[in-house]
Specification:
With 242 residues, the chain is an alpha+beta fold. It has one domain: Aminopeptidase. Helix content is 33%, strand content 26%. It has an eight-stranded mixed beta sheet. The longest helix is centred in the middle third of the chain and has 17 residues.
């Protein structure tokens, strides 16, 4: 009878998930799991503002120290369940207790994420969003996504309650690329409706896969973008007839 080798976690879990754990930031991620190098993977970072200037371990350690007492943000490591390696980060930034809102951000551009489940990053988004509502008491979690580069990721986020709420025209620039940004948010009221059905924002990977099969071919962002352009073209005809 063979015994499977168990990998002892090098990180303390803050939120345990089904496919991944969200763990406390640690210098181990810098020294052993290449946290600094995640932000140098230019190919994987084309839809972000990272990978433009080189990141170093010294800079990453400086950032690590800066977040220790910063209550305006929560940064957590995304750790895979199999090898207990950190492969990315997910965060809540600009936490505002007056407006009860926060901006969500995620980066999982580690080259060593072969053990990460395809839905792992989506679960990371769900777990930290639920934490925002249940523990911090927020009412709105929002973000922006380069569009149409991230249209597939945008559509996946619909599965956990995020909805596109507008188009910011030509607001994302990377090198010579100038494209739009889709503004997204998950409201507390959306979260509660999903929680009442699934028991949590995530439910399970089976629940997410089942919901995905019911989803339309086009994302709400695609429909919104198409209609936005047609409506704009139709409405502003009066400016071209002076």
């Amino acid at each position: 009878m063979s015994l499977k080798k168990k990998h002892k976690s090098r990180y303390l879990s803050f939120i345990k998930g089904e496919l991944i754990d969200l763990c406390y930031p640690s210098e181990i991620a810098i020294d052993e799991d290449n946290w600094a190098e995640w932000f140098n993977n230019t190919k994987e970072l084309q839809a972000t503002n990272h990978g433009i200037y080189p990141n170093t371990r010294a800079l990453q350690k400086s950032f690590f120290k800066s977040i220790a007492n910063d209550t305006s943000k929560i940064v957590l490591l995304i750790c895979d369940k199999k090898k207990h390696k950190a492969v990315g980060v997910v965060s809540l930034q600009n936490i505002n207790h007056q407006s009860r809102s926060a901006e969500i951000s995620i980066n999982a551009s580690s080259l060593d994420k072969k053990n990460l489940h395809p839905l792992g990053t989506l679960e990371a988004m769900a777990l930290i969003t639920e934490h925002a509502f249940e523990e911090i008491g927020l009412r709105r979690v929002y973000g922006g996504q380069a569009f149409p580069i991230l249209r597939t990721w945008n559509k996946m986020n619909e599965l956990i309650g995020f909805r596109s709420e507008g188009i910011s025209r030509q607001s994302f620039i990377r090198g010579q690329k100038v494209i739009d940004t889709v503004l997204i948010s998950c409201l507390y009221e959306n979260y509660i409706k999903i929680k009442n059905i699934r028991g949590s924002l995530w439910g399970s990977s089976k629940t997410i896969s089942r919901t995905m099969r019911k989803q339309g071919k086009k994302s709400y962002a695609d429909i919104l973008s198409d209609n936005f352009k047609e409506l704009e073209k139709s409405y502003f005809k009066f400016l071209l007839k002076e």
